[in-house]
Specification:
This protein is an all-alpha fold and 70 residues long. 74% of the residues lie in helices and 0% in strands. The chain is built from three helices and no strands. It has helices at residues 5-22, 25-45, 57-69. α1 crosses α2. It starts with a helix and ends with a helix.
Amino acid sequence: MKQYIPFILIGLILFVAGGDKVFPGAVGKASTQTRTAMNNVLIGVFPTWKPKTKPYERTEKELREIEQGK
């Protein structure tokens, strides 16, 4: 059984990657649904990145100071 695991994994990857283009009907729809579910899980694993600092804060502060100085 251990010797078949790589073939099973490759088959699963191919099914998810392009099964909807190759297989008609319900099998193709299952491939699309599987790919969508996997994408949603991966998106949920990684939180949205927000910078801890405000990158334009220094520039905006300088602009305000220049405008007030005139």
